[in-house]
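Recall the central idea of this unit: under ordinary conditions, the amino acid sequence of a chain determines the structure it adopts. In this exercise we apply that idea directly, starting from the sequence alone.
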Amino acid sequence: MDHERWSRLLARMPEVTEAAGPPLAVAFIGGDDHSAKQGWAWLWWPGSGTRPSGPVPFDGRYPADWGLLLVMNDTAIEKVGADGTAIMSRLVRRLDIKPFVLRPRDELDASGVLDFIESLELATPKH
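Accordingly, the structure predicted from this sequence is:
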C-alpha cells in the first residue's frame, strides 16, 4: 500500500463516532508485508477523531493498541478504495481480506471497533 491507495481507502471508511473507551486501531496491511513480517501497517482509529490515521512500521508484532488486523491483497485494496466498505464483507468471504481480531470483545466494543467488525459481518451483532 502507498499513500495514494491509503488516502482512497481511508476516504471510504465510515464516519468516526467518538467511543467511550480507550481507542483501538484497525490496522490494514498488505499481504506481502504481513508474510515478510516487515513493512508498513496503516492505522485507522474508528473510535477516536483525534488519533492520526496513517502508516507505522510493522515488524510482525501487534501492539496493544491494535484491535483488528486486516491483511489485504492488492485486489482488495483497489476494490475498497474504489467501492467503499460495503464490499469488504464479500472480500472477506473470498479471502481477499483476512481479518484477525486482536482484543477481547468488550475492549473492541468500548473502542468503537466492534461496530466496524459487525459491519463486515465478522461477528454476531450484540443487539
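Strands lie at 25-30, 39-44, 54-58, 66-72, 97-101.
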